[in-house]
Design goal:
alpha+beta; 5 helices; 3 strands
């Protein structure tokens, strides 16, 4: 039973639908297994891909946190966080605030 969520950085593994491509994700996974905590810990990422592109159209329903069993939500996309999108498009910023 999952009793904790650990939010890690998103990474380029998103394009493949697999954040475990990243060394940090594999390291954390391995550490949790060694500590016998993996079965009760869900890994997740806060991913700007959902905020910017909303690839599967579920941003309003599920938000921008991608759980380890939901990586399909960002597959095929690779976008680093970029604050310029908010500076260039104030309407985008306003629409995100309205969602909150």
């Amino acid at each position: 039973m999952v009793s904790r969520i650990l939010i890690l950085p998103c990474n380029r593994g998103a394009v493949y639908g697999n954040y475990f491509i990243s060394k940090i994700w594999r390291y954390i996974d391995k550490k949790l297994r060694r500590m016998n905590l993996r079965h009760e810990t869900m890994l997740a990422a806060m991913d700007s891909i959902i905020t910017r592109f909303n690839p599967v159209g579920d941003r309003l329903e599920k938000g921008s946190i991608i759980f380890e069993n939901e990586m399909y939500r960002v597959m095929g996309y690779d976008a680093a966080p970029n604050m310029r999108i908010f500076e260039k498009n104030p309407d985008f910023s306003q629409s995100l605030l309205m969602i909150l």
